[in-house]
């Protein structure tokens, strides 16, 4: 069973959540509003957001590509870490969920950094490739059946020495199932297995929340 920190012990997990990250008032308000949705499990945890922020800062990222926005918590966290002229291209298909994201981006005064593209992600990524765009950092947290395609496109869009982070690589423990219990589980299992021999990247699977694989593009 997954937790917000990836630690099974409830008391220790609560301790890590309390001491392991910081959260702005705007992000806290967004998280609390999102928690009232039936799909609230789709939002990353504050600890994951802090992890993405740290990656953006230590890598000196100026451009960030996000595949799967939901209500905008992760993009808001990274926008806080980018320089004043930093830019985010955020890909999603839901006008309803991203309307919440837009409201909080504006409230935080960071909407000028974020270019929301409402279209199927594969279509947006193809257009970015055609335009010759490049990014320092990408985060994939969208439909799992298309994970392999999103990853391959990100490899072409993220510069050498940049990072790709992929969420839900443990899939609430379902990656251990044989046979897999769904097409999404199978897609994640195949993705994880393929990365072990992928010499285009260095990788580290971090067991935070539902698992995040960090890939450095060679």
Give the ordered list of helices and strands. HHHEHEHEHEHEHEE
Overall morphology: globular
Number of domains: 1
Q: Ends: how far apart?
A: 33 Å
What amount of the residues lies in strands?
A: 15-25%
Look at the structure and name the CATH superfamily. Vaccinia Virus protein VP39
Biggest beta sheet attributes: 7 strands, mixed
Q: How many individual helices?
A: 8
Estimated radius of gyration? 16 Å
CATH architecture: 3-Layer(aba) Sandwich
Percent range for helical residues? 40-55%
CATH topology: Rossmann fold
Task: Describe the fold and architecture.
This protein is α/β, with parallel strands linked by helices and 218 residues long. The chain is built from 8 helices and 7 strands, in the order H-H-H-E-H-E-H-E-H-E-H-E-H-E-E. It has one domain: Rossmann fold. The model has no long low-confidence stretch (mean pLDDT 95).
Give me some keywords for this one:
218 residues, Rossmann fold, seven-stranded mixed beta sheet, globular
């Amino acid at each position: 069973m997954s937790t917000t920190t990836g630690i099974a012990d409830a008391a220790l997990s609560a301790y890590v959540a309390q001491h392991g990250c910081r959260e702005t008032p705007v992000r806290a308000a967004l998280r609390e509003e999102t928690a009232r949705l039936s799909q609230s499990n789709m939002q990353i945890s504050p600890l994951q957001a802090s992890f993405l922020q740290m990656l953006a800062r230590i890598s000196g990222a100026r451009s960030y590509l996000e595949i799967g926005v939901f209500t905008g918590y992760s993009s808001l966290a990274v926008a806080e870490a980018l320089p004043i002229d930093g830019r985010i291209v955020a890909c999603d298909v839901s006008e309803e969920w991203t309307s919440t994201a837009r409201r909080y981006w504006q409230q935080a005064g960071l909407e000028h950094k974020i270019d929301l593209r409402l279209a199927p992600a594969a279509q947006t990524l193809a257009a970015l490739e055609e335009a010759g765009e490049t990014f320092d950092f990408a985060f994939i947290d969208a439909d799992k059946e298309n994970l392999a395609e999103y990853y391959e496109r990100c490899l072409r869009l993220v510069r050498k020495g940049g990072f790709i982070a992929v969420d839900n690589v443990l899939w609430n423990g379902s990656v251990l199932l044989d046979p897999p219990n769904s097409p999404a589980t199978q897609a994640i299992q195949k993705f994880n297995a393929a990365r072990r021999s992928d010499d285009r990247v260095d990788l580290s699977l971090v067991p935070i929340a539902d698992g995040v694989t960090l890939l450095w593009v060679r």
